[in-house]
Amino acid sequence: MTKTQTKKRLFYIDLLNCIAIFGVLIQHTAQIAHVGPANSSITIVGKVIQTIFLPAVGIFFMNSGAMLLDYRKRQSTEHFAKRRFLRVVVPFLLWSVFYYVYGYYYYTFPGIFHHSIFGLRNFAEAFLGNKINSLFWFFFIIIQLYIATPVFSLLSQKYKKILLYIVIIAFVSSDVFSYLGNILHLNLEQSILTQPLLASSWIQYFILGYLFKEKYFSKTFENGIITFGLITFVMNIANDVTGGHHLFLQDISNFPYTIAVYLLIKRLAEQNDNVRVANIVAKFASTSLGIYILHPILIALFDWLLFGQTSERWTKYLTVLENPIHIFVFPIVIYILLVPLIYWFKKLPLSKYILP
Length: 356
What we know:
By secondary structure, the chain is mainly alpha-helical. It contains 15 helices and no strands. Helix 1 crosses helix 11 (255-271), helix 4 (55-68) packs across helix 7 and helix 4 packs across helix 9 (203-213). It is globular, with a radius of gyration of 21 Å.
């Protein structure tokens, strides 16, 4: 198979991408949830924000699976691998080099590791340990999924039940065992039970996104998933507000809530598919990965311009993380600034190999 076909854009995929990248932005400006005083009201607010927007990265993985598992209908495996390498692996390497140099001179939170040693060996160790830009964990995972995609793609043609089986096993291994281990005071996460290949790499998100696109489940079943997901969301919010003091509310999987958000937005988009709006949303969505790559620099820049602080002076920087402007305004401003900038940049020759 040598021919290639253009991949059809889906409005709901683009809309979910836009929502997800904004969710990433506000998660990263609400880091007070992880570093603030446990009983502080702003820390609790931060935790609630984190819980609301936790589906963001899972949505990206679901969208990737939705659009890639049937790649054989459009292109050969060779073309698929070459395209993924040029559009993802090459930018990943380039920006890792950039942030390695950047981290030698500057302090940025979250994501960027500041280091005082500079050299090829140190870069290699930092890269392999994801200690250049910790936010790039996403690339490590998505590349693993790309490697597995040709196998999943074969299964998608005739064996969707096997794909569903993989989803169930991955969910039980990674999420159910974690919750039960907490309830029963057993360290199941370190058990061999949670280490099979099927429990790794966000596989359940990747595959389920495709199954939803193919309308594999009945609407009744989807409604049940949505209901269960919203219940787990309420339980997670209750855990945030009560300070995590109730054992049965701890370590509840984010997977069902992510599915619920995904399906609700998918249905909303499919019921309101306007060509003009869809074209605009598609342009916004095309900038999402670029925003993911660049946004830590803008957070650090705005912190310095507005508050005169960087994460180098951590105690003083905590007051910045607590500031409502940092938490709520920065994500909006960063999104508004980066969308046109990245959209314009992507029109330049070879830009797709720099900002995918």
